[in-house]
Write a structure and sequence with these properties.
Protein name: XRE family transcriptional regulator
Number of helices: 7
Mean pLDDT: 86
Helix content: 25-40%
CATH architecture of the largest domain: Sandwich
CATH topology of the largest domain: Immunoglobulin-like
CATH class of the largest domain: Mainly Beta
Order of helices and strands: HHHHHHHEEEEEEEEEEEEE
Number of strands: 13
Length: about 325
């Protein structure tokens, strides 16, 4: 009897040790299985906890994840992984980090943004704009929009900076609403929006499931119809895993758009190309290879006059 008691008391310690080892070395499915075992939760109970976070994941999917038969990939699935970190009382980013490392070791390339994820982001954007009582164009017509995106040493989207040249098409315009859509698995609550020139940061709203952030940029003046204005802002991101593309959607036709993507010298892509889409549901077209500049490790595109649709740059890692 004393021996039986000793083994029963030791079981939690063994489970905790297995979990610590799995969280340090992975892979993702082993760590997830160890975390669920350490907490003593059946998968039905895990599913119930996820539903309380507003995340719907089937018991079969959870089983496949912990067996390594499938991996979380869609935005909703990545949102579930972040919720699991809280439900299973794990350190922040622990499972997300292992998931990204598993992808890198296997050479697996996640799919580009799906139609569903773009539609979900669009729906969320509409709700967030409603909370701010704002319209997407804010009474401004775009004459020029220049973006610079930085990709860090961990191949993550570190930050971006936007420089806008606009003209008011109605009286009383005194703000602009900036929109940032982070990569899958990002943590929008940890992003920061910086007002850099001729504006200051107002209210900020975000949605964790889609990675959408909206922020008011307040002008120091009220524009009259026909007035032009220049302003600049930046977004510090760096919260997601490996980045593979950056895209920008446009509604009505506008002025010039330029996009530059600059890579850390310690993480250079194998290939880069530009692309366009008529809509989120349309196939990608207009593919054109882009050569990486030697000294500054960057690629760019220029649209002299943007049309309704999507334009972006994608890249492949070795």
């Amino acid at each position: 009897m004393p021996h039986a008691t000793q083994h029963a008391d030791a079981a939690p310690d063994v489970a905790a040790a297995d979990l610590d080892t799995a969280l340090r070395g992975g892979p993702f499915h082993v760590a997830l299985r160890a975390a669920i075992a350490a907490r003593g939760l059946p998968l039905q109970r895990v599913q119930h906890h996820l539903s309380r976070y507003g995340v719907k994941v089937g018991v079969t999917s959870l089983s496949y994840w912990q067996q390594g038969a499938r991996r979380p990939q869609r935005p909703e699935s990545l949102r579930a992984v972040r919720a699991l970190e809280e439900i299973l009382q794990l350190p922040d980013e622990s499972l997300i980090r292992l998931l990204a490392e598993t992808d890198e070791r296997s050479g697996r390339r996640p799919a580009t943004r799906s139609y569903r994820s773009l539609v979900e982001a669009s729906d969320v954007l509409g709700r967030l704009l409603g909370e701010l009582g704002a319209q997407l164009d804010c009474g401004l017509h775009m004459l020029g929009h220049h973006e610079r995106v930085r990709i860090g040493a961990r191949r993550e989207l570190t930050a971006r900076e936007s420089h806008h040249i606009v003209r008011a098409h109605q009286d009383g315009v005194d703000r602009f609403v900036a929109v940032h859509h982070g990569d899958p698995g990002c943590a929008p609550e940890r992003m920061t929006v910086h007002a850099l020139d001729n504006c200051r940061t107002g209210r900020v709203r975000w949605h964790r499931g889609t990675g959408v952030v909206v922020a008011e940029l307040l002008f120091d003046t009220r524009l009259r119809a026909g007035d032009t204005f220049l302003f600049r802002y930046g977004v510090e991101d760096g919260t997601a895993g490996v980045s593979r593309e950056y895209l920008r959607g446009f509604g009505p036709a506008g002025g010039q758009y330029a996009l530059q993507v600059r890579f850390d010298e310690r993480a250079l892509p194998a290939r880069c190309h530009r692309f366009t889409q008529h809509s989120a549901a349309a196939p990608r077209s207009g593919r054109q290879e882009l050569a990486l500049s030697g000294r500054h490790h960057s690629v760019h595109l220029v649209e002299p006059r943007v049309r309704s649709g999507i334009v972006g740059i994608a890249w492949d890692w070795e």
